[in-house]
Amino acid sequence: MNHDTTPIAAIATPPGRGGIGVVRISGKNLAPVMEAVCGTSALQPRHATYLPFRHADGSAIDQGLAIYFKAPHSYTGEDVLELHGHGGPVVMQMLLARCLEAGRDIDLRLAEPGEFTQRAFLNDKLDLAQAEAVADLIEASTEAAAKSASASLTGAFSRAIHGLVEKVIHLRMLVEATLDFPEEEIDFLEKSDARGQLERIRADLEQVFAEASQGALLREGLNVVLAGQPNVGKSSLLNALAGAEIAIVTPIAGTTRDKVSETIQIEGIPLNIVDTAGIREAGDEVERIGIERTWGEVFRADVIVHLLDAGRGPTRADEDITQRFPPNVPVLRVWNKIDLSGHKPAVDRAAEATHIYLSATERAGIDLLRAELLRVAGWQQTAESRFIARERHLVALKAAREHLAFAAEHAMAGGQTSDQALDLFAEELRIAQERLSSITGEFTPDDLLGVIFSRFCIGK
Ligand code: GDP
Ligand code: ZN
């Protein structure tokens, strides 16, 4: 990514009306804009000055606070000017337009989404994992996700990665030194405890991976599909699951008939639960389309909850549905209406699927289902200092894990270490290090950076 240092401007507060709105400008030589809009270019850094923001003809656009941050002591690491005015869409647009006009001579332009944070990254104010945490914090849909994003933002995840990288570097240095002095090579691996070091690194990585997986779960949540015949109680179960949580995040009414999805949280994990319209033979065209969409949801599911009537047992139609479930998605078979059938609330982990007995309307056994959903998702309640993580991070950690395993194989090759085995050992360590470092943004390809920052909102 060529490091573009053209000054940029954007409205940093969300569109709509609010108490205040902020226009943010970042770049070099912001004095002309300050002079023109604020009437002074001598704002004291990090001090809020109350003043009118002016049009070119001297009339006031708004009155508010101007705050100047001198490089490198700013969010982006560049000079930053923040104008805090009243948060109305029209007044904010006028203020932004005025800044762009006043900044014509310094080539001031509109910022791309995430460009402020991208500059913070390029100027080493944040590493990549921290920059991603900024977006994750803004997008967090549960308190737990926000908490872990905040932990990542302050560097919890980055420190864990750095810890691993440093240990890998230390081991690499040992190996490289040995390769440089072949006479000392005789059983280098024994003397330096290289195998022991490697095993400890691998154990540490497992720990980080486990925590990152939890963090990714907090961020991505879980897609749960409620499938089953009409009248088995899907809508009732959705209500029961949602009702058990006070914090319903976003209820979204679906577009197809009787399809409703609701995001609830269980222990801070967002669960997007889709109540599919009863899957059955299509009666008419509209219904056929609805049913096709339903199957689309089923294929995107992380977990399928197949609801059945405990009093009736599975029907032919249920068998047909089961046949069509995607093979790799875990299925929970939930037997509903146990108040009518006389079963007790229970979980039965059978070979082909887990069976849960409950009553949606009596709210009996709902906790069992909630716990089972978390279990299927791989959630562990134990880990305390959770940080947020993304699929990208998990992929990098898995690759590092794999190359450390290769390294271990080379280290196991005989008691005497051949030159070649040592070479391969060193090479695997190097690759593992590179993959780990991609998490914090060293050795990260430009196009990937582009993708990451383009998903930010404007003004961030
Ligand atoms: P859906 O078509 O699968 O969404 O099923 P609904 O949730 O609309 O429920 C169909 C009927 O079954 C309604 O009359 C519900 O009150 C009833 N029902 C749902 N769950 C239970 C239950 O646990 N016990 C009893 N007795 N009735 C239930
Ligand atoms: Zn329903």
UniProtKB/TrEMBL annotation:
It is found in: Cytoplasm. The lineage of its organism: Bacteria, Pseudomonadati, Pseudomonadota, Betaproteobacteria, Burkholderiales. Exhibits a very high intrinsic GTPase hydrolysis rate. Involved in the addition of a carboxymethylaminomethyl (cmnm) group at the wobble position (U34) of certain tRNAs, forming tRNA-cmnm(5)s(2)U34. K(+) binds at residues 231, 250, 252, 255. It comes from the Bacteria. Its cofactor is K(+). The gene is mnmE. Residues 221-378 form the TrmE-type G domain. (6S)-5-formyl-5,6,7,8-tetrahydrofolate binds at residues 24, 82, 125, 460. It holds the Pfam family TrmE_N. Binds 1 potassium ion per subunit. PANTHER family: TRNA MODIFICATION GTPASE GTPBP3, TRNA MODIFICATION GTPASE GTPBP3, MITOCHONDRIAL. InterPro entries: G_TrmE (IPR031168), GTP-bd (IPR006073), GTP-bd_TrmE_N (IPR018948), GTPase_MnmE (IPR004520), MnmE_dom2 (IPR027368), MnmE_helical (IPR025867), P-loop_NTPase (IPR027417), Small_GTP-bd (IPR005225). This is tRNA modification GTPase MnmE. Homodimer. Heterotetramer of two MnmE and two MnmG subunits. GTP binds at residues 231-236, 250-256, 275-278. It is an enzyme of class 3 (hydrolase). Mg(2+) binds at residues 235, 256. It comes from Noviherbaspirillum aridicola.
